Request: fold
Amino acid sequence: MITLQNVTKIVQSGTESLTILDDVSLEINDGQFVSITGASGSGKSTLLGLIAGLDAPTSGEVLIDNESITKMSEDDLAETRSKKIGFIFQSFHLIPSLTAYENILIPMEILGLSDAKDRANKLLADVELLNRGHHYPSELSGGEKQRIAIARAFANQPKILLADEPTGNLDSKNGDNIFDLMTDLHDRNQVTLVLVTHDQTLAEKAERQVILRDGRVISDDIHHRATENTEKYEEF
Amino acid sequence: MNFIINLTLREIRSSWKRLLFFFLCIAIGVGSIVALRSLIQNLSQAVGGDARELMTGDFRVTSTNDFSPTDIARIEKVLKASNIVEAENEIVETSAMTRPVQGGNNKVEFVSLKGIEPPFPLVGKFIMSDGKPFDFKLLANRGAVVAPILLEELGVKIGDKIKIGEAEFTITDTFDEEPGGSGGFSLGARVFVEKKAFDEAGITQNRSRISRRLLYRTSANPTALVEQLRTELEGSTLRVQSYRETQERLGEQFERTENYLSLTGLLILVLGGVGVWNVARVFVEQKRESVAVLKCLGASGTKIITVYLLQILVLGFVGSLFGVLLAQLGLYYAKFSFNDSLPAAMKYSVPLTTALTGIVLGILISLLFSALPLLQVRNIKPNLLLRDENNKNLRKLDLTKWIFGIVCLAGLLGLAVWQAGSIIVGTFFLVGLGLTSLVLYFSAVVLTWFLKKLKNFSSFSITQAINSLYRPGNQTRIILLAVGLGAFVVLSVQSLSLNLVREFDFSRNERLPSLFFIDIQKSQAEEFDQLIQASIGEKAEIIPTVRARISYVNGEPIDYQNKEVRQDQGQIGREFAVTYRPELDQNETIIAGKWWQGESSDVPQVSILDTIAETLKLSVGDSITFDISGRNLTVQVANIRKIDVRNTRTAFIFVFRPGVLENAPQSFAATVLKRVPAVKRQRLQRDVIDKFPNVQIIDVAEIVKVVKNLVENFVLAISFVGSFVILSGILILIGSVALTKSQRVYENAILKTLGAKWKTLAAILFAEYGILGIMAGIIGSFFATALSYAVSKYILDIEWEFNLSLMLSGIFITAILVMLVGAISSFNILFKKPLATLRSQ
Reply:
């Protein structure tokens, strides 16, 4: 379970202080598929980063499975991510010096899994890129890169999958494919999926939709209430 | 662990091209150290390895006078008691003039004459040019065995006669290898004659600089016997030395040379280290995203640092191995290029321990210089994947970095001390290098600051080129430091050599004699003077000289059996040529006491040179007792003199007050100033030898030639090392170009899109590196001028002159070199199509 308690994040921009998240509290249950939407600068990605422990809140607390990660050291946070969290980025963030196969292998090698190689091949097969494993990221298309990134995110069998605009850099066809792949893997692996997106259509497919504005949660709907949500979203 | 090893291997696979400069920096540095160390070790082994052969005996007793019957009796007494001496002989050696007897041949040469007696040699080989061993019969009936070069110099052949002293010798053979080797620096070719003939040739009477030695071959370790002899000979001026001590001393000298040369190699390796630091810094900046991804995937900072550290270790190791290979190639080069000047028995392989030392040094330097940049990995936050903030945190200094910085400095100090073999020298080296680097770096900062102020040029290319020097990640100041340091070393040496060589220029020192005559007898003085006047029209300055040795200082005897005194023998234990005169010479000034007035005093007095006053810790009023032909004479130090070497005709260390030495056995020295053409000079030398066979002539022009040659070789050697420093700087430059290439490609793409033609882009490129080169040249030449001034004035005490053309050509060559290297290594980016570049951004 993911818990955010009165989380505020303020960053310094030159001499000015910018409040990115303002007193946000959320609880996300295991296995839930939550979408987070909002305009640019509303704090979506920051929220995702705080859940993953990539950054620390200015105040408030983030808990994963009832354990606070706010005060954890960098190395403990890395271990938590390694065991529990998978991350998918808008700009893929594959390691350019490694092949597609090796990119998938990395999280398992960090964990020290003995069957890493077999599992990497299986994941390559799952994302239908078995024949592209030996290619470097620079030799892959955007869609292929994102598939590899998804396979990598699922490699260490995380309980939580965080996706930051995973279709943002792809055309609509590739975007749909990636989304289907992601939700399919979510269903099959029963992971908690937190999806940050601008795409209202994708957001509506989630079980729960959180809308942020100026760093505050302005809507948090547990069930599909597409019409109302669409109206709120269109206010932006 | 699997993760660390796998990722290290994958990283090396993908990054080795980018880290090639890292590899080369280490290879060049390690190569220099290993080559220099190996060369000197092999030389040491070839020259000093068998000190017994070098001495041609197990121990020797040396003297500059005839061995008196008392001396011989004292020596024999000890030898008989020990019973280990198998064989002995006596050798007498001096330098003398020789000329062919044959009429019409006017050549005259200085030779190193050796009088020997059987059995010879006691130890070692004496091989004739035809490969046969030496036979004593060759010296019978005034035969002489000579070095082949003498035949060439004198224009004679085997069977011809030469005159040495008053005797004529027939050349019976030439030799290929003499026992003990040539003994290093020698002014004349070696001539062997029978000792009896040597004594009969009239060379030994009133002759200075004759070395006599009794050589012994023993059946057992001579150390105890040598000690007994020293005890027996206490109070005499005889020196006893065993080959084991020589071996020890030679070993120490070679070790010291090796350590100093290693420091030169270390300088190049440290510069390589600067290159490593630079590459590692930029490498980490370029790896920011990958590090953030790895952290996001759960890898700890420590694991990631370990991966990169392992990568550095592997590259450092392979680079060091390559360095050892380079050193081996360097040794082969030395073999083919300098075979004639190096000993025949010299090996040209890298000793295993030296190779291992080089590898350890290479790895340690790699680690020390990359540790700080790698620590920046800790500061890379994974959230940069979501929001790319500037990387100012990356270079922030925190406690850990301070601690690591101090550890690295301590490590570097350790390496310097290890290589120098001395804490003081190592510390001085590092502090000196640090200060030099700081000064050069500060100058680079000031110069680039000025340039920024001047950047409003009408030329678009120059303005852009200056802007490029401030490109983020551009290593302008580091390149200026490294290339500037190289230019500094080379130009300093060149400037110093020019000043040194000029010091020996006759046209500048009118008081430097052109010819020097010594050992003129009192009875010959008048006739000699007439001869000189008749042939060159100048009245020679004739000075009385007396041979004297110091036996007591303030009543304390100088113990020639004492180790320090033995080793310092060249300075205080030798025989001095002293003179007496009423006036102070025009090149002399008194720095303590008073010059005497009148010709006599109650107490005999002497004036001493400031240098010997310092060595013997003497001041005015102290007493010195001289041994003059076996009689002791105690004199009081009346004053201490200083000599202006630039204005020197003669330079006596001890000048006595008149009234003391007039009746002592003495000879005369004479000097002439007139610059006489070579042919006339040779005729004069021949006339002098014919009339006065005992007189030795020193042709100053010949000495100056030898000194010039020595200085030039020295300059060549240092410039060679300096060129490696420049090479390290150039490597840093190439590395920097490679590391900022993507940025250049992007800038060029934008400029092309905005309408810049490739000629404009090429002009920017050449201007950028041209400016960089000019600035490095300015820094190098400015500090080279300062150093050459300081060394000339305060260390060498020679006149210093600014050489504008040297400095301008230094700046010009550095600028051209940097411009060519920089432009060539980035030239291909001018031809890249802009669209692909802009799309990928």
